[in-house]
Design a protein that fits this description.
The protein has 298 residues and is an alpha/beta fold. The protein has 2 domains: 150 residues, HUPs (Rossmann fold), CATH 3.40.50; 100 residues, 3-Layer(aba) Sandwich (Rossmann fold). The protein is 34% helix and 17% strand. The strands form 5 sheets. Strands 4-5-8-9 form a 4-stranded antiparallel sheet. Strands 1-2-3 form a 3-stranded parallel sheet, with helices on one face. Helix 1 links the parallel strand 1 and strand 2. Helix 1 packs across helix 9 and helix 6 crosses helix 7. The chain is globular, with a radius of gyration of 19 Å. The termini are far apart. The model has no long low-confidence stretch (mean pLDDT 93).
């Protein structure tokens, strides 16, 4: 079976070194296995999108030495397909009339400190109409194997309860959109940040509800600030656009990220790192972006 991995950036801001390190792991894992890499733009979180970011993001990835197979998939252009997938959940989802804040939050990936509170099942017997749809979640732990962190056991019913899967049939929430895309694109391996480990349990439940087999999962330890929080717009000096503007060559950036990963040091390209790639070599610890580490990039 051909391995199919994917890079799935969200155009909510400029790429930073944390994003790129995660993409590097995903890209190297697939390429080292002779597999394919797909590029998917996850742009359903409309209020957070920034105009003009997508072409810049794609240009930054190419500049850094990444390539991918086939056309770039854009989630906002796939709503008819999402409606078809939603229909397959009939009898397993129910309408919900609860807070619009919960519904809005479900449009984007939940990250550290942003997980939604547990839903108590208020609308389980509500006949509708509602303002969103939730998946019925049965109690009990869901176990899965993570390639980096080993066995995981998450009780979705106890942590978030019945979670939002769509605002309308053609407007899926993050969890359903990701599962639908991975199924249609034949993704066999998902490599992404470790703050999305809780999402994996929800996505496996959706795969099962659709009668499908989920891909393999591996979660990359994040690059975080000295405060322990994930990188964001506040880390302007860590953005690829900033480093490019300073004249930093892409080989320097990739080389530093390879060093943080455990693949050696020195300037590098993604392609030249393929022979060095091994899941046995990678760091299991989050990288704290200290001033010294930031200085090493430039």
């Amino acid at each position: 079976m051909t391995v199919v991995g994917r890079l799935a950036p969200s155009p909510t801001g400029s790429l930073h070194v944390g994003n790129v390190r995660t993409f590097l792991w995903a890209w190297l894992s697939a390429r080292a296995q002779g597999g394919r890499v797909l590029l998917r733009v996850e742009d359903l979180d409309t209020p957070r999108l920034r105009e003009g970011v997508v072409p810049k993001m794609i240009d930054d990835l190419r500049w850094l030495g990444f390539d991918w197979d086939g056309e770039v998939a854009v989630q906002s252009e796939r709503r008819a397909y999402y409606k078809e997938v939603f229909a397959r959940l009939a009898g397993k989802v129910y309408p919900c009339r609860c807070t619009r804040g919960d519904i809005a939050a479900a449009q984007s990936a939940p990250h550290d400190g942003e997980q939604e509170p547990r839903y108590p099942g208020t609308c389980r017997d509500f006949p509708g109409p509602g303002i969103a749809w939730r998946l019925r979640v049965e109690p009990g732990p869901l176990d899965f194997e993570d390639r980096v962190f080993g066995k995981q056991s998450i009780d979705v019913a106890a942590t978030v309860g019945d979670f939002v899967v769509a605002k309308t049939p053609e407007q899926p929430a993050y969890q359903l959109a990701v599962v639908a895309d991975d199924l249609q694109q034949g993704v066999t391996e998902v490599v992404r940040g470790d703050d999305l480990i809780p999402s994996t349990a929800r996505q496996i439940l959706l795969h099962r509800a659709l009668g499908e087999t989920p891909p393999a999962y591996a979660h990359v330890p994040l690059v975080v600030g000295v405060d322990g929080k994930r990188l964001a717009k506040r880390f302007g000096d860590a953005q690829i656009a900033t480093l490019r503007a300073k004249g930093i060559p892409p080989e320097r950036i990739i080389g530093v990220l390879a060093d943080w990963t455990g693949l050696g040091s020195g300037d590098a390209t993604p392609a030249c790192l393929v022979p060095k790639w091994s899941w046995d070599k990678v760091s299991r610890e989050r990288i704290v972006l200290t001033p010294e580490r930031l200085a090493a990039l430039g």
